[in-house]
Amino acid sequence: MNASPSPLPTAIITGGSAGLGRVIAETFLQRGYRVMIVGRNETRLQRASQTINHPELHTAQCDLLNTEQTQSLADRVQRELGRLDVLVNCVGASDRSLVSELTPDRLHELIDQNVVTMLLCSQSMAGLLEQSSGTIVNIGSLAGKVGARYLGGYNAAKHALTGLTQQMRLEMLPKNIHVAIVHPGPIRRDDAGARYDDRVSTSMPAQAAQPGGGTSVKGLDPQRVADAVLRCVERKKRDIILPAHMRWMIALGNAFPSLGDWLLLKFTSKRGE
């Protein structure tokens, strides 16, 4: 038996058991939403549930690359929660390598994690979101707007996510589903300086292991990104870039490619540093 629609709006946060996803989940709970966090690791989900400790928090273990599991997740939302107002696709993975060292298998893996998970989950939840005239918010990256050095296949994956998000927004508009994307720069985290040490080869500068491949952009407070996601829902924003001043730099780079290359070379780590 399906649950009766709740008076509380409902949000699903994929990748919500840790990091930015967990901050987004907490933000929506504080805003009065029922929230379901989705992840592959049951232990991490339960740890997040205990840490957040909120009566309106639900958890769901799901492999978002598995079509049957994503459809089962949508069925569970309909059955147990009765409605869906917001889907935040926060699953993703970054990388470090030169293009000359990037393997097809690694590129496919990054596209799976950053793009295909979003596609399958959005397809599965579209019917529920249409019923509520809901919102999909995808977590992109500045790497989906520019092509900085040393990020392996991450630039390609996030550019694909950006393009697919715009296509979804246009195609879902007749269904009254709002589709948005947030493009944050490097996000502040405790392990930011060591996450990619094992992926930086001797052909790259050591600084490439730093957030953003060694860019000169200050790490963002994850709460700032979560607030931007909320603005996409409440104010129907379509495309948010953080930090905001990067929008002008990106626009200049698109209008004048030689200037764009110069800026990227200036603000990313240099060989030999």
Automatic annotation (TrEMBL):
The Swiss-Prot or TrEMBL record annotates one GO molecular function as:
oxidoreductase activity
The superkingdom of the source organism is Bacteria
Pfam families the record matches: adh_short
State its Enzyme Commission number(s). Answer: 1.-.-.-
According to the UniProt record, one GO cellular component term is: membrane
According to the entry, every stretch annotated as the Ketoreductase domain falls at 9-190
InterPro entries, alphabetically?
KR_dom (IPR057326), NAD(P)-bd_dom_sf (IPR036291), Sc_DH/Rdtase_CS (IPR020904), SDR_fam (IPR002347)
Q: Which UniProt keywords apply?
A: Oxidoreductase
Matching entries from Gene3D superfamilies are given as: NAD(P)-binding Rossmann-like Domain
**Keyword presence, Iron:** no
- Tell me the SUPFAM superfamilies matching this sequence: NAD(P)-binding Rossmann-fold domains
Its family remark reads:
Belongs to the short-chain dehydrogenases/reductases (SDR) family.
Instruction: Specify the protein name.
Output: Putative oxidoreductase
